[in-house]
Amino acid sequence: MSDDLALAAIVLLIAAMPASLAFLLLADVVKLEGPGRKRRWIRITLWLAAVPLSVPLFYSLWGAAGAAHLEPLCQAYATPEFRRETPTPRELLQLRTSRVTHHSNFWFEVSMDRYQVIDRRYGTVIAVADELWIDAGRARHYCGVISGPLPTAASGKADEKLEQFLRRVAQGKSRA
Questions:
Q1: In this structure, what is the dihedral angle of CA atoms 156, 83, 121, 118, given to the nearest 10 degrees?
Q2: Which residues are CB-contacts of 48 (< 8 A; sequence separation ≥ 6)?
Q3: Total tally of structural domains belonging to the chain
């Protein structure tokens, strides 16, 4: 995420240099009498240019704040919980999925899919894993059993990752 912000800052600087030179050239072309009028014209024009540019900046900062907000939750929920470490035949395992909103406020909505692996013989939950995502403005960030332990802008391949999780449960291993 910090790499994206650094790249955005570099692009903004590279774009700002020619734009500022063009703006100063335009200010010289427009003949306004007196230094006060010219300064006032430049100041008003800069404010008018800053207002539309502030909207994308606001949305990008909102998305970055969402990723930062999600990171502690990733630390808490991204690691699967194994409640039994003895091997279980794969055909006796059933995956139950539920979707809940973890919490919601004006700025963010954090949702999660909870995956419970159930031993069909006894009906007991033998492993639990979560996939979380946060909606922050236009941005969505993921983490969990599918996407990995750190917030990312793209979700992983769910079927493949869940099958790996089920294989680990069937082998009775809590670590890969």
A1: -30
A2: none
A3: 1
pLDDT of residue 96: 95
* 48 in Cβ contact with 132 (< 8 Å): no
- Name the pLDDT band for 129 (thresholds 50, 70, 90): very high
Q: Are 79 and 149 in contact (CB under 8 A)?
A: yes
Residue 165 structural domain: 1-176
Q: For 10-42, what is each residue's pLDDT tens digit?
A: 666 666 667 666 766 766 666 666 667 777 777
Phi, psi of 128 (to 5 degrees): -135, 135
- The DSSP-derived string for the chain is -HHHHHHHHHHHHHHHHHHHHHHHHHHHHS--SSHHHHHHHHHHHHHHHHHHHHHHHHHHHHHHHHHHHHHHHHHHHSS-EES--S---GGGEEEEEEEEEEEE-SSEEEEEEEEEEEETTTTEEEEEEEEEEEEETTEEEEEETTTEEEEESS---HHHHHHHHHHHHHHT-S--
